[in-house]
Amino acid sequence: MSAHFPPGFLWGTATSAHQIEGAVREDGRTPSIWDTFSHTPGKTEGGDHADVATDHYHRRTEDVQLIADLGVNAYRFSVSWSRVQPTGRGPAVQRGLDFYRLLVDELLERGVRPMLTLYHWDLPQELENAGGWTSRETSVRFAEYAGIVAEALGDRVELWTTLNEPWCSAFLGYGSGVHAPGRTEPVAALRAAHHLNLAHGLGTQALRAALPARAQVSLSLNPSVVRPRTRSPQDLDAARRIDALANRVFSDPVLKGSYPQDLFEDTARLTDWSFVEPGDLAAINQPLDSLGINYYTPAVVSDGSDAESPRSHAHGASESSPWPGSEQVAFHQPPGEQTEMGWSIDPSGLHDLLMRYTKEAPGMPLMITENGAAYPDKQGDDGVVQDVERIRYLHGHLSAVHRAIADGADVRGYFLWSLMDNFEWAYGYGKRFGIVHVDYPSQTRTPKASAHWYGELARTGILPKAPTC
Ligand code: PNW
Q1: Ligand 1 pocket test, candidate residues 425, 432, 438, most atoms within 8 A of CB
Q2: Active-site residues (predicted)?
Q3: pLDDT digits (tens, 9 = 90+) for 82-114
Q4: I want to staple 284 with a disulfide (CB 3.0 to 4.6 A). Which of 83, 182, 201, 334 is the partner?
């Protein structure tokens, strides 16, 4: 059966500044924590870094044309903080802002709605030197930066996102250390999570103050679909612990204005959470216009207190844990097909998430701000990558979205990760999420089969039958 999506649905692709821009030393930009991290030996696959990436900073106009030619009506990108505010404080660099103004104008001219994310993991290194997200000063700095960007682009950008996936920034950045800044301190990770929440709250206030009333403000989370391996009380408790650290540590303060009591208990031997100051929760609990959800794969967990259980953390192999206070939980690879990331394919997880937030935040419009899959290149004789696995992945997940809408979820848009192959963080350039292939030596962009498939969907709003190939 073919499925119709609601009129006005946003069909987009997504990228982030650090993963595509390159030009890391141009026009006054200073290093971010990801520049430092990727240039530290042993931190990224093959020592890959994003000095050039997909050279988008110099190919902006060509890339906007590429987006428009796909047939999509929206594009999600992020702003590089250290391009706009090189020291993370004080006056903005006009040339940095100009790049994004031109990008937005070119998108609008071609009928593509821009969705701007203020922070997709690239903290100015100067702010990390002052404590980074473990310091509450960084939340205040973020609000100032949000105000600057809003003043500059508020007349033309309507869709605003404060943070992308604060879980990754806090727990992969300061807990397991597989992301920048590469710190492995459990308490630092919890402090970072709170200061990211506070940054979201103060940033939202700064956006509201500077933006016209029609602007929409949102936050993109990457909630985990946590499945207990069995229904035993021990495994159910493991799932509850991971749900607290992956999901409720962000969604509760943002949506309800409180931290979960069980999270305090689970982490009591590490911290008394005295870094949460009076007034913080009210500041974090700002009304939002939509909630962004990024989804790739579910997690299956069990109680791992016995020595035999796998301690491999589903979120990147490392010695350190991204789960402060719940290090004993074991993660299991679900059976069935996987993408090249080793992430199992399970579209029902996306349906579950959309229904969960429909229940937890009644009336809240939802936006899928990321979903997609990495697959190795299989170029045909014509140079086009025949990525039928990716089409199948997308088809399955979009069917799940359609089903959630039928079940009452107010889903307003879908942003495919990613527009083009790019710098996949610690995995470097080896993992390709794009629907457009990038030949890095020549920087040639070639739409894959999935780009044509997705463009057709975006133009018609009708999800075709499952691909049979
Ligand atoms: C997201 N995990 O990253 C990011 O928002 C993108 O920048 C990234 O390219 C994309 O997904 C694909 O990885 C994640 O370990 C990285 O749970 C790691 C995890 C989740 C999301």
Answers
A1: 425
A2: 165 (proton donor), 370 (nucleophile)
A3: 999 999 999 999 999 999 999 999 999 999 999
A4: 201
Positive or negative, the Cα torsion across 44, 46, 49, 50?
A: negative
Does the pLDDT value for residue 439 go beyond 60? yes
Query: 295, 370 in Cβ contact below 8 A?
Result: yes
Q: At 56, which amino acid appears?
A: H
Q: Let me know if residue 179 belongs to a domain.
A: yes
Q: How far is the CA of 370 from the centre of ligand 1 (A)?
A: 9
Look at ligand 1, atom 12, and give the residue with the nearest C-alpha.
424
Provide the number of structural domains found in the chain. Answer: 1
User: At 137, which CATH number?
Assistant: 3.20.20.80
302 in a structural domain: yes
Is 19 one of the annotated binding-site residues? yes
Query: If you measure from the C-alpha of residue 401 to the centroid of ligand 1, how many angstroms do you get, rounded to a whole number?
Result: 20
138-150 pLDDT, tens digit each = 999 999 999 999 9
Q: What is the pLDDT of residues 275-328, one digit of tens each?
A: 999 999 999 999 999 999 999 999 999 999 875 555 544 444 446 999 999 999
Q: Which domain holds residue 229?
A: 3-463
Decide: residue 328, CB within 10 A, 0-12 exposed, 13-18 middle, 19+ buried.
middle
Q: Are 321 and 178 in contact (CB under 8 A)?
A: no
Distance 428 CA to ligand 1 centre (A): 12
**Active-site residue, 370 included:** yes
* 165 a catalytic residue: yes
